[in-house]
TrEMBL record, chains A, B, C, D:
<keyword id="KW-0663">Pyridoxal phosphate</keyword>
<dbReference type="GO" id="GO:0030170">
    <property type="term" value="F:pyridoxal phosphate binding"/>
</dbReference>
<keyword id="KW-0808">Transferase</keyword>
<keyword id="KW-0032">Aminotransferase</keyword>
<comment type="similarity">
    <text>Belongs to the class-III pyridoxal-phosphate-dependent aminotransferase family.</text>
</comment>
<dbReference type="InterPro" id="IPR004637">
    <property type="entry name" value="Dat"/>
</dbReference>
<dbReference type="InterPro" id="IPR015422">
    <property type="entry name" value="PyrdxlP-dep_Trfase_small"/>
</dbReference>
<protein>
    <submittedName>
        <fullName>2,4-diaminobutyrate 4-transaminase</fullName>
    </submittedName>
</protein>
<dbReference type="InterPro" id="IPR015424">
    <property type="entry name" value="PyrdxlP-dep_Trfase"/>
</dbReference>
<dbReference type="InterPro" id="IPR049704">
    <property type="entry name" value="Aminotrans_3_PPA_site"/>
</dbReference>
<dbReference type="Pfam" id="PF00202">
    <property type="entry name" value="Aminotran_3"/>
</dbReference>
<dbReference type="InterPro" id="IPR015421">
    <property type="entry name" value="PyrdxlP-dep_Trfase_major"/>
</dbReference>
<dbReference type="InterPro" id="IPR005814">
    <property type="entry name" value="Aminotrans_3"/>
</dbReference>
<dbReference type="GO" id="GO:0008483">
    <property type="term" value="F:transaminase activity"/>
</dbReference>
Amino acid sequence: MQIFEQHESGIRGYCRTYPTVFSTASNARQTDENGKSYIDFFAGAGVLNFGHNNPAMKKAVIEYLENDGVLHSLDMYTTAKRSFISSFVDTILTPRSMDYKLQFMGPTGSNAVEAALKLARKVTGRQDVVAFSHGFHGMTLGSLACTANSYFRDAAGVPLPHVIRAPFGCEPVCQGCTQGCGLDSLHQLRAQFEEPSSGLPRPAAFILEAIQAEGGVHVASAAWLREVQQLAHDLGALFIIDDIQAGCGRTGNYFSFDGMGLSPDIITLAKGIGGIGTPLAMNLVKPEHDAHWEPGEHTGTFRGQDISFIAGTEALRYFEDDNLMKLTRANGILMRDALQSVADRFPKRGLQVRGKGMMQALDLGDGSLAKQITADCFAAGLLVGPCGSGGRVIKLIPPLTIPDEDLAQGLAIFTDAAISRLEAA
Amino acid sequence: MQIFEQHESGIRGYCRTYPTVFSTASNARQTDENGKSYIDFFAGAGVLNFGHNNPAMKKAVIEYLENDGVLHSLDMYTTAKRSFISSFVDTILTPRSMDYKLQFMGPTGSNAVEAALKLARKVTGRQDVVAFSHGFHGMTLGSLACTANSYFRDAAGVPLPHVIRAPFGCEPVCQGCTQGCGLDSLHQLRAQFEEPSSGLPRPAAFILEAIQAEGGVHVASAAWLREVQQLAHDLGALFIIDDIQAGCGRTGNYFSFDGMGLSPDIITLAKGIGGIGTPLAMNLVKPEHDAHWEPGEHTGTFRGQDISFIAGTEALRYFEDDNLMKLTRANGILMRDALQSVADRFPKRGLQVRGKGMMQALDLGDGSLAKQITADCFAAGLLVGPCGSGGRVIKLIPPLTIPDEDLAQGLAIFTDAAISRLEAA
Amino acid sequence: MQIFEQHESGIRGYCRTYPTVFSTASNARQTDENGKSYIDFFAGAGVLNFGHNNPAMKKAVIEYLENDGVLHSLDMYTTAKRSFISSFVDTILTPRSMDYKLQFMGPTGSNAVEAALKLARKVTGRQDVVAFSHGFHGMTLGSLACTANSYFRDAAGVPLPHVIRAPFGCEPVCQGCTQGCGLDSLHQLRAQFEEPSSGLPRPAAFILEAIQAEGGVHVASAAWLREVQQLAHDLGALFIIDDIQAGCGRTGNYFSFDGMGLSPDIITLAKGIGGIGTPLAMNLVKPEHDAHWEPGEHTGTFRGQDISFIAGTEALRYFEDDNLMKLTRANGILMRDALQSVADRFPKRGLQVRGKGMMQALDLGDGSLAKQITADCFAAGLLVGPCGSGGRVIKLIPPLTIPDEDLAQGLAIFTDAAISRLEAA
Amino acid sequence: MQIFEQHESGIRGYCRTYPTVFSTASNARQTDENGKSYIDFFAGAGVLNFGHNNPAMKKAVIEYLENDGVLHSLDMYTTAKRSFISSFVDTILTPRSMDYKLQFMGPTGSNAVEAALKLARKVTGRQDVVAFSHGFHGMTLGSLACTANSYFRDAAGVPLPHVIRAPFGCEPVCQGCTQGCGLDSLHQLRAQFEEPSSGLPRPAAFILEAIQAEGGVHVASAAWLREVQQLAHDLGALFIIDDIQAGCGRTGNYFSFDGMGLSPDIITLAKGIGGIGTPLAMNLVKPEHDAHWEPGEHTGTFRGQDISFIAGTEALRYFEDDNLMKLTRANGILMRDALQSVADRFPKRGLQVRGKGMMQALDLGDGSLAKQITADCFAAGLLVGPCGSGGRVIKLIPPLTIPDEDLAQGLAIFTDAAISRLEAA
């Protein structure tokens, strides 16, 4: 580890939480160079929905490499990209009767958000965007302006303008929160927008995660989401869902908002769509909005990542039937029950369990407690990650493909660690 | 191609220049699905310095995959990352007595620039950054503010503040340009900064490419670059070199500014450092500046790309001796001579040849002419890319590893196409 | 009127509402060049609290002119300014145990607000300011950013950043308004500021009018105002009351917020303080904040207006006893009763009467109706002015010195006009 | 003076330079309360072109007051305003064949500039404005963004965006200045604007003073001014001359740019146009631009100042013949000769005399020296004011109506003080 400490920037973070050097990984386990194996309930911050080194993907990628497939293609046409597009359309869009153009850009979620914001501003000729408490949308200046966390915002060194902040649609509201999240404050926001003397300009877009991941696993109600969409459209604004972490099957459906009666103008995707952990980002854009782009107006060197197209095409096979999603929903219940059992054991602490599918979280209301539990889990061979304000929430996002025994063992490690620390607190 | 036209966003660009579907690629050649082979003088916009499917890299990557190496690691420690860091320090930094911290971020050049700007602003407590005519630094709002091209800027939909524009240090100045590029305008800029009533605030940083690639292959003189560095330091600002496209050996040295007596505060790298075409971005930051980062202040899901670390480590072997760089310089002369022969044939047109090492360009002064030549080359089996204002410059950036016969054949195709069109014009 | 139509800018406004040429004015009456006399319920948009050509002021000004008193003095010391300062301290500040520094600047309310915002930003080192729905603070870019009305904001031609918008503290809330004005939304705003992941930065200041005049005569509750002050101080922000239109006796006390237990960090004054209608602006600044100013950091050519000091000193005599304020409160009740009688006559229309002291208004909920009534009043010899969103509110602000018979006659004209139009509507 | 020190804000400035309390003033003399008389070479920072208490104006104002003329009228029509408009059109515009609309606004120069910027942005739909080194345009956020002096800019507390800075057109250039002022840098600026990859957006306007007053009395050449106008029009931008301090006869013509072949799109006026020292501001706007205003889009409580209209109408009589302007030009030569004699006496110091008409200045190149000379003058009974960067320039702007003996005596005091200090230095 000395090499890292000596030469790598002090900005490095997760390595401080998991102070070891990893060498191999398979499905829901990472192994360090000393041979210690860890159950992975973090999955690359939500990238590895299909496990580390997913065998089918690995096979396809190796085959592609051995055949000298094109590895880097900007926005040229490649056979690998065509396969991915076809599979995505056939597997995801067509069954849902969704009509969207697929836009590829620099392969980060932040870049997807930047592109979405540019387009919304072009389409509407407006500048301001509504973003919500606890929202996380990236680190570059455009997306960072939509990100809520002040730790990240304060690092910008410049103002982050053109964003109107509003409380999120949490249901139920978080323990102790009095921001007024939910429909009431949304109705007030509508009234502000409709009042010509509120000082709020008509926005270009509303951007949100249906389930906020990094922000602390806040789940919006479908009614609130529909009302945001309605408000956006009533104001002539675009409705953008950032499904970068919660999409790609994480919540028990391909999209986190499936079945809610929503039809976003733009959907941003990244993280899981490349399948194996290599980068890819893609926006789904309604054709009438896409028509506002001129060729090459938003470019990116790495927007043609064919390894990601190959592995991503394999990933899409998981959605040809409902097996993985059924399992995800079932495992989600197991996870939730485990967390709820911890919460119920300490009724006076007001612990809250939140989540959907295989993104489940325990809000401990206390960042230092969460840090201790995380450290205990690591020592016991489990990787979990804190999130939310001050890191007070522990989010469990194992690969969707996790074996039952790893899931059970991981939950046991977590509940033991949490209970011990809570009893001692 | 119908699948793309039907489903992919209208923003796609290069596929319009190269209207075919590529399937495989090897060193300096790409082959489309009809079996037609193209010599590649574009190299993934400067990513593929070591050729498509570089055999050593491919072997290392396949081996890594077969061994279940960690593929996605955020900023956790991995053995693959350690190898990369060690190689980079030993091969690149130590021989140059350069003392820098390595910072990894979201794997795009734009993200590297965003991180550099944040840090410069944190270090200085100032907001404004000086950027130059023709500079290209990325597409996200922070980096886009430093990018000069109005086609990209106009797509932002919001103002791009906190950047002071100045003419670049081209030597010689471009045909017909009267912006006053070079030392004279730089001295005036110094006087403006030193005058308390110029209205120009003290800047946080000066950011530039020593050789501007996308902007049209403008080469700054060493004297101008040293004076920019001196001015930055006299003003208490950071001196940032964006070596994303010109670095990693492209110009005949590892860094485009090697041997010029420069010591940038931050060097941004991306494109070529991942070796095989998979994404990676890295900043070299002087330790005294790096100390201003708090852990995790600038994050990115894909900042731990182990395939890129593995292939990038192989790429660094090319710099253990001077063979590839010697060849690069020699081939650069061949390329320049070929272009100059075209320019010399049409003395009245004021064609200009510019470049360094294996980035050489012909400034045709006319975007539609450049477009025609590019199309003719494509038809004849050569990929070249226009750049600069209105696409008036054709830039040749083949893989550094291109076989002699491909280089010769490619140059022949290009000069034929250029001469035909110039004669007809 | 042809001279005006031919040569004056099309931006002129009130002359379209009152299409005649005025020549003389005395107390609450203006007379046009045809000899028609109008009762003035508009008082120069709240400037002429002490009537047109107030005899004592007129006498003092003429005397000052005849004695060659200094008329223009920047921020040099003059005897006239000293008299004004002494009177203001003795008559207004000392009896209230208020300890403030007096700052003079360019003689407009907008300039007073600009100075207050600069100081708040200097004191706190922060940039954002909280301003409220319907607030009016001026037309220059800094103050305009705090002004709510979109008609004015849209004319800026640039973004108006660094302001956070919130609903006002109206009590009761306006007919049909669902912005959530009042304590509930203020508590939510507090929660947003206290939540590090709301995206809201700590503000430099909260700026508000205790009674919003131009915005449509919205009266904040004392409880809400106290809570804003408390919130500001809890966040380390300054609490600024813009008393430009509602101050100087208009509401039945010198300050509109007298007796509410408030202690603003900065109070902005203009309009009425010059007494006779000549310009003057002045901020009251707590000494600990004033200490952050460097000499001459905010200047203004016309900041030393000695005619205004002379007439303003006369104006202060009205506050040496409670006679005028008693009368103001009594007349305010008369005015309110008159308006309420109109409202009561049309119970289904939800007309609302709002105001305090001699600023009383009828919210007609309909700008075109208000425009018609205003025109009818003008024809009948009464000047009233619409305000609020779309001009739907008619605000009555006669001179505080209006003779009883003028007040009665004016109210009769107004109620007749309003009733006729309401019956016809 | 204790009253001021105890109660007035620490921001007060000129009173520190002139530490006495003034009571009366007449033409070119101010008298303090101890009876000491001072010759006024400062004239209220350029307001009092026609002297303190100009007898004709005083008489007219007193008469107007005695007749109960309207004193405050917003943008209603009054007889006083009509007289002023008619006189201005007949005396100033018609003889020059100038076709402009007259726009009145809040009565400060800063407000005039804010209105001009709004209109330029509305007309062009663009945001950026070009402003120049040493330019002074006001203190509110919009005008301050165009002001060059960092002492004022740094007090804003927020960024001052949407302004592009360029060197001014000084001829000759100031001693020691290497900013490249003049036509060369203007040609480079043109080239930058015409190059689509310079990063400079097309501007809404160019704003400048033909003679910079507060900035240090820099005189632009007519050729440079014409080229700025041409560049503006070639770019589709407005050409705005801020004639607030240099206009109204100061330079020996009514406008400072008379006779240069210029036709600005907007001319901003304030300071001297009210004649007697009371506030007034007015923009002259070409009718085709004025047509973009909607009624009341830019308002201001004090935009109808009838005392200023009355006195300003008297002031216009001075321009019915050329007597005052002839005298101004002649006295300007006297002033210049006196200053030049000082400069010539110290040839090694590189002192520079600059100015036009009765705005003449000595650039001492040293702020502390200028401060000492100013203090010596004050002690000897002469008021002069330093300006420019660090206060290194002493500007002489006596009333145009100054008696010969006062001018001679004042110049003698100044030259004695300057020579003594320069000899001692």
